[in-house]
# Entry
Amino acid sequence: MPKEKTTVFLVDDHPLVREWLTHLIHQQSDLIVCGEAETAPAALLAINSLKPDVAIVDISLTEGSGIELIKGIKAAQARVAVIVLSMHDERLYAERALRAGARGYIMKRETAGKIIAAIRQVLEGKLYVSEALAALLAEKFVDGQTTMASPVEQLSDREFEVFQFLGQGYDTRRIAESLHVSMKTVQAYCARIKEKLKLANATELLREAIRWQESRSAT
# Structure
């Protein structure tokens, strides 16, 4: 009797990425893609139904939040091992993703072999991060670091997402639609961001968000 294959669910809003990942995973005799989604709400619904062994999730989705999706998966299906596959710099997002419940973080620029290695490592119950990130996290632990490297790191996951959207030129209504929250909730997040970053008004907040976004794009 053939051995049952390990099931993988894909969450990415780019069809070509999902197609490439499916092709890569299906080259492995013991792995199979059991489903895919391009939005956080659709992904959570499908994962609750299919109960895959692994979910590969992007941080940036056109509808919903990758970080909040990870939290939702871990709350509803704790046994699903989540790996983040993202274009975003691991120095900014990996620690948030791991705190949310992800078992691995890998950049999209990495090789196909490393993606497969990440899947196999988390299936063994281990964490998968790059050597550079592992060294950074170890240094933080050894030094007992509790201070943040930048004021932006003080933001909660939701506040950080709103800040990013502002930097990308989203208005309050569009942010609310993307995160599936009310405009009033977004305004409350903006107020807390201003307080944490010591910004006087909405104009300063927008200017700081755009400046931060441009600085990230330049690195």
